[in-house]
Amino acid sequence: MIDLLLPYIVEFDTFGKPQLGFLTIADEQLPFKPQRLYWIYDTPDNAERGGHAHKENKNTLICIQGVVIVSLEDCDGNQLDFVLDNPSKGLFIPAGYWLDFKLSNQAILLCTASMSHDPEDYIRDKDEFLNQ
């Protein structure tokens, strides 16, 4: 059983072959029903994004193209690092993790969120996050 309080790699069903291309489906593998989808693209090489945590919102990050290096940190200072470089895998991020990530040149990062956008759900000060 998967612990929904810890980050983990989600593997999506993928069909196809090199001669025709591939189809990947993100359906029942997602640990929540997305309330919001957004994507990040046209980034310069090694662009750094994130710099926040969520109080309640959960996310799944899927690198559609390129490479995204994700660093997560919990309130105790424990760090987890992930490399997203395959569109058939995503990273589930529960609430309560500080998120930083770097995108390769021309990476496309698809993000699913468990909540609609709420500015009050963000923690943008890392010291505040670590001292909660």
Query: How many angstroms does the end-to-end distance come to?
Result: 29 Å
Count of DSSP E strands? 12
Helix count from the secondary structure assignment? 1
- Percent strand equals over 45%
SS-derived structural category: mainly beta
Q: Please give the order of strands in the largest beta sheet.
A: 1-9-6-11-4
Q: What's the gist of this structure?
A:
This protein has 132 residues and is mainly beta. 4% of the residues lie in helices and 49% in strands.
Characterize the structure shown.
There is one protein chain. This protein is 4% helix and 49% strand. It has 132 residues and is mainly beta. A 5-stranded antiparallel sheet has the order 1-9-6-11-4, with no helix packed on it. A 5-stranded antiparallel sheet has the order 8-7-10-5-12.
Blueprint of the fold:
Blueprint: E1 8-11, E2 13-17, E3 21-25, E4 36-40, E5 47-54, E6 59-65, E7 68-73, E8 79-84, E9 89-93, E10 98-103, E11 108-113, E12 122-123, H1 126-130
Antiparallel strand pairs: 1-9, 2-3, 4-11, 5-10, 5-12, 6-9, 6-11, 7-8, 7-10
What structural keywords apply?
single chain; 132 residues; mainly beta; Jelly Rolls; 5-stranded antiparallel beta sheet; 1 helix
